[in-house]
Amino acid sequence: MTVLRIEGFVIVSADGMLANADRVMPQTLKFAGDQRFFDAALDAADLVVHGRDSYEDQPNSPRRTRIVLTRSVAALAPAPDNPKATLWNPAGARFEEACEAAGVRAGTAAIIGGPAVFAMFLPRYDTFWLSEAPQVRIPGGLGAFPGVPERTPHDILRAAGLAPTDRQVLDVDGPVTVTAWRRES
Ligand SMILES: NC(=O)c1ccc[n+]([C@@H]2O[C@H](COP(=O)([O-])OP(=O)(O)OC[C@H]3O[C@@H](n4cnc5c(N)ncnc54)[C@H](OP(=O)(O)O)[C@@H]3O)[C@@H](O)[C@H]2O)c1
């Protein structure tokens, strides 16, 4: 049986955006303190999960076991270009089956986007790590979840049964903070 902790990771602007209107994460959302936090969290995770257009672009990326969502496969397939990656179409296989195919049965799965992928796991997060850069605005950008900016990421996380707990400053230059949104028991 597969028993995984599910954790989400994102950095958003003050208006809840994770990328610009061209679906590209701008330099203005990249902060050394946040990148260190994200890198350490992914090193500690057993599995990284993301859509075909997301990636973490870190030195240890090639070593990480990952599941990549795509409609280019019917259900599950090994990625042709990465021996550590499994391609997954949720229309054809359950997440647990994807984890089995990736060879991961326990530990922590880090969900790293984009918006549709973040939304799919909303009912399942144990913790969602929400990094925020309150000085950055990306009008017309790509929201962290579908429905942003009409609803804030906070509204969406609360509606999914998560509540903000501890908060740390990751980068005084931003400033950037990260808040652990945990499932209320
Ligand atoms: N600020 C942050 O922390 C952060 C976090 C994550 C992402 N981002 C940025 O967001 C941008 C990418 O976001 P995005 O939404 O365009 O891309 P994405 O979610 O990474 O990838 C979208 C692709 O994933 C696949 N996919 C998504 N949902 C699926 C589903 N339910 N079933 C099957 N396949 C599915 C599809 O691939 P196919 O087309 O192959 O079918 C889809 O085209 C990038 O610029 C990235 O850097 C920023």
Task: Explain this structure.
- The model has no long low-confidence stretch (mean pLDDT 96).
- Helices cover 18% and strands 34% of the residues.
- A nine-stranded mixed sheet has the order 5-6-4-3-7-1-8-11-10, sandwiched between helices. It has a two-stranded antiparallel ribbon with strand order 2-9.
- A hairpin with a 4-residue loop joins β10 and β11 (176-183).
- By secondary structure, the chain is α/β, with parallel strands linked by helices.
- The protein has one domain (3-183): Dihydrofolate Reductase, subunit A (3-Layer(aba) Sandwich).
- The longest helix has 13 residues, at 32-44.
- It contains four helices and eleven strands.
- The structure holds NADP nicotinamide-adenine-dinucleotide phosphate.
- NADP nicotinamide-adenine-dinucleotide phosphate binds at residues 10-11, 18-19, 23-25, 29, 50-54, 69-72, 89-90, 112-117, 120, 142.
Topology record:
Layout (H helix, E strand, L loop, with lengths): L2 E11 L3 E3 L12 H13 L2 E5 L14 E4 L6 E3 L6 E4 L6 H8 L3 E6 L3 H6 L6 E7 L8 E2 L9 H7 L2 E10 L4 E8 L2
Parallel strand pairs: 1-7, 1-8, 3-4, 3-7, 4-6
Antiparallel strand pairs: 2-9, 5-6, 8-11, 10-11
